[in-house]
Design brief:
The chain has 292 residues and is of the alpha/beta class. The protein has eleven helices and 14 strands. The chain has a six-stranded mixed sheet, sandwiched between helices.
């Protein structure tokens, strides 16, 4: 019997996940189907339970249900626990296992596909919602020089910085003379957008939903380093509003979130099926479709 998977969201009709997982399944010779399911804003849990009762094996979760999915799980991965949000569900009997593959997808897209190492770089993360929480730990694990979390309301950004402060603690100890000395971990700061004024960043990542609504972000001028990367987790045909602003402000490289979407999907496929698909040809095909 064909195993059933899906993506839950609201809205969800635009999702490219069914096409991505269909390509993964064909490539890896896996017998599965994958569909997009619109969950009511006040009926996510009931929609998930109905899918499980109908034989569903697993699901992806997109906006705005990642935090609600976290609470629905009976067991969660360490990276989901750190994020406080879940984008991947696996169903086995009465168990609902939750994982978060967003951060792994983002880091792989930036470091492998874009060939832009994060180690030693200064990173600005825009937003303090579930999308931001899912990527902070994986970013810090790459040992950037520092991470600044900026949000319209500073208190949410500052709360996130405190939540992940232990990952910015000294990472290791080394012998210097007769004493053991701690090497510093990446510094984590936070504040509102205005607090980024006067700072320069090597990587600026938009984890807000502003690009979905076409809203502009109030970013100060001069925040992009000469060889900087501007990365929007959203994607579309042409520049998103954030990428258009980054281009105007002199960012050297621009990237949308299509690669992140494919890479987090590949990570979810590994969770479900125990095999990692080759993401490169799938990303290339989707990029070509988006350009036409």
């Amino acid at each position: 019997m064909t195993d059933r998977y899906c993506v839950f969201g609201n809205p969800v009709a635009h999702s490219r996940s069914p096409a991505i997982h269909a390509r993964f399944a064909a490539q890896c010779h896996q017998d599965l189907s994958y569909e997009a399911i619109l969950a009511p804003l006040d009926g996510f849990a009931a929609t998930v339970r109905s899918f499980v009762a109908a034989g569903g094996k697993g699901a992806n979760v997109t906006l705005p249900f990642k935090e609600e999915a976290f609470g629905l799980c009976t067991r969660r991965s360490a990276r989901a626990e750190r994020a406080g949000a879940v984008n991947t569900l696996a169903f086995t009997g009465p168990e609902i296992f939750g994982d978060n593959t967003d951060g792994a997808g983002l880091v792989r897209d930036i470091e492998v596909n874009l060939e832009f190492p994060l180690a030693g770089r200064s990173v600005l993360l825009l937003g303090a919602g579930g999308a931001a929480r899912g990527v902070i730990a994986p970013i810090l694990e790459r040992q950037p020089a520092g991470l600044f979390i900026a949000n319209r309301t500073a208190d949410k950004a500052e709360a996130l910085a405190r939540r992940f402060s232990e990952l910015a603690a000294p990472q290791e100890y080394r012998l210097r003379g007769a004493t053991m000395e701690a090497t510093a971990g990446p510094r984590v700061d936070a504040g509102n957008f205005a607090k980024t004024a006067g700072r320069i960043f090597d990587v600026v990542i938009n984890a807000t939903s502003a690009s979905l609504s076409g809203a502009a972000l109030p970013l100060p001028a001069g925040i992009f380093a000469p060889d900087s990367l501007a990365y929007d987790m959203m994607y579309g045909k042409g520049d998103t509003p954030f990428l258009a602003l980054a281009r105007e402000q002199g960012a050297a490289r621009l990237a949308d979130g299509l690669g992140m979407l494919v890479e987090q999907a590949a990570e979810a496929f590994l969770v479900w099926r125990g095999v990692r698909p080759d993401s490169a040809p799938v990303l290339a095909a989707l990029r070509e479709q988006l350009a036409t």
